[in-house]
Amino acid sequence: MGFAHASSFPCPPTTSCLFPPHPAWLIPHLVHRFANPARFLRIARWATPLTLALGLVLTTAGLVIGLFFSPPDYQQGESVRIMYVHVPAAWLASGGYLGLAIASAAALIWRHPLATIAARAIAPVGAAFAAICLMSGSLWGKPTWGTYWVWDARLTSMLVLLFLYLGYLALSAAEGERGNDRKGAAILALIGAVNLPIIKYSVEWWNTLHQGASVSILSGKSAMAPEMLAPLLISVAGFSFLFSAIVLMRMRAMLAEQRVEARSRRLAEAVA
Amino acid sequence: MTHTANLWASYIWPAYILTIGGMAALLAWSWTSMRTAEKRSDALKRSRQDQ
């Protein structure tokens, strides 16, 4: 028995009209719906300042509360304040790579015109966050463990993530120079996604100096005091909005560069 | 007291400066490249319309 179908989800021709639509049909439909660069730009023009403003306000609030108003840890003392920059950077480095892998899959499977641009926009931002995560982690490690670096499973898998980002950037740039469609870089991004569960579960699978997770997104449970959890979540939200704003700006820049190249080519052809 | 002051100067402030500086650099780079590219695209579009 089907219900009346929402007009925004037109029925596929071969299936019965059900609401909500089946995910197997809905996901490709949404992917193709946003494949239009003009539609994307209409959304990005108002989303960019909004995400930027939200990111700046939330990041400032989270970091100020974390630095000056949250309590020191009973074991780590004041050095726990590094958590408010280290943890959001780590989550976004991993989350960014997931986005890179999904965009690469969309580029390979559906030849989505925006997917390759999204992947290329995410990669340098994710690499920067991975580098920030590693460096702030080193600065946290010295007063806590007595060393800046140890070849521990979590730290090593995070370093591998940074190398995967750099590998993607290098391969994508090389393929772009040759005029290829960057398939090799997309395949590298997909293969590299195997590192994400290794990062997540490294503290459980191996004996590591790095502590286990204090906050579980899946179960919604936290071993952290609310006075520390609140600024951490505010920082994570702020960093996420800033990450989104930077990616949107980079995608807009790439689309504008593509338009310039296309128009210059057309002008050159008209002159010739 | 000295230990706490050292902790702030040697580890906490550098971690924050590194993160905020890195993010500010990323924001400035993305903003500048977006504005430059969109200005070039608009200028080319206008020159084509004038022709």
TrEMBL record, chain B:
Q: Name one Pfam family in it.
A: CcmD
Instruction: Describe the task this protein carries out.
Output: Required for the export of heme to the periplasm for the biogenesis of c-type cytochromes.
Q: Which family does it belong to?
A: Belongs to the CcmD/CycX/HelD family.
Q: Which domain of life is it from?
A: Bacteria
The UniProt transmembrane annotation reads 12-31
Q: What is the lineage of its organism?
A: Bacteria, Pseudomonadati, Pseudomonadota, Alphaproteobacteria, Sphingomonadales
Q: Which GO terms describe its biological process?
A: cytochrome complex assembly; heme transport
Stated membrane topology is: Single-pass membrane protein
Family annotation (InterPro entries): Haem_export_protD_CcmD
By what name is this protein known?
Heme exporter protein D
Which keywords fit this entry according to its UniProt record? Cell inner membrane, Cell membrane, Cytochrome c-type biogenesis, Membrane, Transmembrane, Transmembrane helix, Transport
Localization in the cell: Cell inner membrane
Q: Which is a Gene Ontology cellular component entry for this protein?
A: plasma membrane
Q: What is its main location?
A: membrane
